[in-house]
């Protein structure tokens, strides 16, 4: 099956494109033991093993015919649709093998919109993901959350500037040269990719990836420490 599958996949680019039959939405299709399956679900099973009952594989957001497993996501279903989660309730979803997205529901804002916080964790099993979720729920319940929708929708650029001016400069009295050093690190290495995105939409994996770019560029330890001091106190995810 693997050999037959590989003959119909173009892996030359960022997306591993299915070259065989496709459905009306552009997603790949392949027949396995007489049953028509989505190519993405077969790709997932070839990598991770048989899907359990109720599970499905969500396709790549940018290319419907993509079967690159790292571009897919596993969606688990445990029976009938769940009722709306009460305040402080948590849920988890596997993004890919070893990576889970945790969500905690914490009531509503004054405008009626749902208040949720998210975190991406790297764990070895569903059991560890469940334990991480329990810790996350406790952490959220014990912490202060944005009171208004504008606070909820603050961008990374806005959060960094607020941290630099109100906390480091205003409360801790840091030197202007230190403030400018931190601001320069953000402007060069983080702002171009995530500066205009909402802070709550940024997960730890994204920050780790940008730190990786800095390490690959051979930045000095002092510049790396500036980045850690800047992004360590800013809650992402």
What can you see in these coordinates?
The chain is an alpha+beta fold and 237 residues long. The chain has three domains: 2-72, no CATH class; 90-145, no CATH class; 154-231. Helices cover 40% and strands 19% of the residues. The strands form four sheets. Strands 7-8-9 form a three-stranded antiparallel beta sheet, with helices on one face. Strands 1-2 form a two-stranded antiparallel sheet. A hairpin with a 2-residue loop joins strand 3 (29-32) and strand 4 (35-38). Helix 5 (156-171) runs antiparallel to helix 6 (176-194) and helix 6 crosses helix 8 (221-231). Mean pLDDT is 81; it is low at 80-88.
Note the topology.
Layout: H1 2-6, E1 9-10, E2 17-18, E3 29-32, E4 35-38, H2 39-48, E5 56-58, E6 73-75, E7 90-96, E8 99-108, E9 114-122, H3 126-142, H4 149-152, H5 156-171, H6 176-194, H7 204-216, H8 221-231
Antiparallel strand pairs: 1-2, 3-4, 5-6, 7-8, 8-9
Helix pairs in contact: 5-6, 6-8
């Amino acid at each position: 099956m693997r050999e037959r599958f590989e003959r119909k996949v173009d892996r030359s680019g960022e997306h591993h494109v299915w070259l065989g039959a496709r459905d009306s939405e552009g997603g790949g299709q392949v027949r396995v033991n007489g049953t028509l399956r989505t190519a993405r679900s077969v790709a997932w099973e070839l990598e991770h093993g048989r899907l359990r009952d109720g599970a499905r594989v969500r396709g790549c957001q940018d290319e419907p015919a993509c079967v690159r497993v790292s571009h897919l996501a596993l969606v688990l279903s445990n029976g009938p649709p769940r009722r709306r989660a009460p305040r402080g309730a948590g849920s988890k979803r596997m993004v890919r093998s070893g990576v889970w997205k945790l969500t905690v529901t914490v009531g509503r804002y004054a405008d009626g919109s749902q208040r949720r916080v998210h975190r991406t964790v790297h764990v070895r099993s569903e059991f560890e993901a469940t334990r991480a979720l329990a810790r996350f729920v406790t952490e959220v319940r014990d912490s202060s959350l944005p009171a208004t929708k504008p606070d909820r929708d603050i961008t990374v650029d806005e959060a960094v500037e607020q941290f630099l001016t109100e906390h480091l400069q205003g409360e801790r009295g840091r030197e202007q040269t230190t403030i400018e050093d931190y601001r320069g690190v953000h402007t060069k290495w983080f702002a171009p990719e995530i500066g205009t995105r909402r802070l709550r939409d940024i997960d730890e994996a994204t920050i780790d990836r940008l730190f990786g770019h800095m390490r690959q560029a051979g930045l000095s330890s002092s510049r790396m420490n500036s980045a850690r001091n800047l992004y360590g106190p800013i809650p992402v995810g």
